[in-house]
Structure formats: structure tokens, C-alpha cells
Write a structure and sequence with these properties.
There is one protein chain. By secondary structure, the chain is α/β, with parallel strands linked by helices. The chain has 2 domains: about 10-255, Alpha-Beta Barrel (TIM Barrel); about 265-330, Four Helix Bundle (Hemerythrin (Met), subunit A), CATH 1.20.120. The chain has 15 helices and 9 strands. It has an 8-stranded parallel barrel, surrounded by 4 helices. Helix 9 (about 220-225) links the parallel strand 8 (about 210-215) and strand 9 (about 230-235). Helix 6 runs parallel beside helix 7 (about 155-165), helix 12 runs antiparallel to helix 15 (about 320-330) and helix 13 (about 285-290) packs antiparallel against helix 14 (about 300-315). It is globular, with a radius of gyration of 20 Å. The chain binds flavin mononucleotide (FMN). Flavin mononucleotide (FMN) binds next to helix 10.
Length: about 325
Amino acid sequence: MIKEPSHDLDRSYRFSVAPMMDYTDRHFRVLMRQISKRALLYTEMIVAKALYHSNKIDTLLDFNEIEHPISLQIGGDNPKHLARATKLAQDWGYDEVNLNVGCPSARVKSGNFGACMMADPDLVARCLEAMIESSDLPITIKHRIGIDNLDSQEFLLHFVDKIASIGAKRFSIHARKAWLNGLNPKQNREIPPLEYEKVAYIKNKRPELIIELNGGINTMEECLSKLKIFDGIMVGRSVYKHPLRWKNLDEVVFGEKPNKLKASNIINSMIPYAEIHLKNDGKLWDICKHLIQIVENVPGAKSWRNNLTINSQKYKNDLIIIEKAARQLEEAGL
Ligand SMILES: Cc1cc2nc3c(=O)[nH]c(=O)nc-3n(C[C@H](O)[C@H](O)[C@H](O)COP(=O)(O)O)c2cc1C
């Protein structure tokens, strides 16, 4: 399916939802759009080589129009594959393409891409160059502050300068280094300390670059205080686990009108979308696994979540399950 290229990014990167494999799928992104119309949403990482060889490109790339502004994140170390993936992203109507140079997983490392590419800035530059040449979309990069013993401030500045010279439009920097040997991906998101000052140093030295800070940001207050220094804030786990915590973000970050969003509004607004998904042979749980995050810290939350979890897996294509879940919230004034 070929679509018209669409929206201007319009500084949507002021607040973005991080790419997260198995979490930020298209259903979660549609859910997120009920909470924020303005935040930039990233896809899960798609491996450029898989796209290159796939005969199911639609399955990998299709998204819903309401997901704009949306950034396609790709991973790979082969400029030819990455160029093709970028061209496809443009044809599909994505708003930008982001290269993943931050993922430390063994699978990604064995493919010689992700965070290990930080050791070879020339290779990253060649990849980005190929992506930039293949489309008119903004090309951005997500990376760490370092890997293994390549973790000095000078190394990071040199890396960023090299990438900036190629024409990357934005840097999303996860403010932790990654240990490629010895730590698994989960540990690499928790054990290496957050070093925001290293990212701040880059912004200070290179004020003309657009720098998006990522890692460990859990509240709107933290986010606003970091926005005084950085151009954008990217939040991953806290948005996924506590979506409603961020319900005022369009107002607070983007200056939109206040909303009175409740959990029941969100579930209700997902019903027409779920209906179409079921008609296309999708399963209720594909959507409900994300919806259960909406209700927390209120009496009865646990049993509401349990019921929705069990029933949406048992009655795989019965819309009534979501309708009932929404009604329960309405009755509780939530
Ligand atoms: C389950 C999970 C999957 C992730 N998958 C990706 C991914 O596909 N691409 C990527 O660049 N980062 C990925 N990340 C890292 C996040 O984008 C983010 O950098 C990290 O979680 C730190 O931000 P946070 O503290 O706000 O969660 C993933 C993180 C989690 C928790």
C-alpha cells in the first residue's frame, strides 16, 4: 500500500514515546493517540534486512493514519538495506526514519548492528548517508552515550560530530552506556548509571544540534525540568506502564487546551478501532494487553485488569468484553 507523505514534524519531538520491541506496536500507538495528539511516536525497531527480503512488507509497515506524527525505527549495518527501508518508509507515509544505534541485544550484536556500531562511526555515517540520499524524509539517530570502554566525553562528542556532518536531523541519546559483554538488554537499561550531564555537555557544545534526551524519566515534572536544557524528551517504560500519568502532556508540553480525559473515555474511544481489528481476523488480546495499563492505583484496579486479561484471551473476538470493561469504569466514575 503506497501512501502520500504527510505531516510536518512540527517539533513533535519535544515529547516522544520511545521505540520498544513488542510494546510500541500499532495498537499501543493508537491507544497513545487517545492520550496525546502531538507526541512523536516511534515504531518498534524493524530490521532493514528483513524488510529488504520480505514479501510481507504491508504487515511490517502498515499503520493507522491517526498515528502521525510517526517515526519508523530501523536497524541494520548495510547501507543498501537501510536505503531501501528508508525509501519504503517514504512510500508508506512515515514522517521520519530513525536509525537504531543503541540496542545492545545479542541478536542485534550478532548481526553487527545496534549499539555495537558506535565503535565504528564511519560505518554509521555511511549508513546514514545512504538513508539521506534515498528519500526526502528527516533521518534521525538513536544511540547511547558510549559502549564498553568507549565511554569518554570526547568519544561521544566525536561520534556526534561525525554524524552531524552527514546531515542527521536529530539525536535521541539514551543517557547510559551499554556493556556489550556481560549485561543483557534489560540490565543494560538499568545497571549502567544515567549520565545526563554527558548529554547536556553535547547540547552545550553544539547548541545548533537538536538533542532529545532519553532514559529514566518518570514524571512530567522531570520532563519539564529537562526540557529547559534539551530540545526534546523521549520516554519509554514510564509511558507504557503508566499511560494516564501523561494525559496532560499536550497541554503542558505543547500548549494545547486542557482535556478531562478519563480511563473510560480512552477505552470507549478504542472500541471502533477494536471492531475493525476483529473484522480483520485480529484478536482482542492484541489490543487489550495494552489497555490493561490504563487502570492503576484505584480500588478494584487489580480485578478489572485480571478480568480483562482473562476474558479477552478466552473470548478472542467478542467486542462485548471491551464494552463491558468500559462500562465498569464509567460506573466507578473513572
Ligand atoms: C521492552 C523494551 C524494548 C525496547 N526496544 C527498543 C527498540 O526496539 N529500539 C530502541 O532503540 N530501543 C528500544 N528500547 C529502549 C528504549 O527505547 C529506551 O531507550 C529505554 O527504555 C530507556 O528509556 P526509559 O527509561 O524511558 O524506558 C526498548 C526498551 C524496552 C523496555
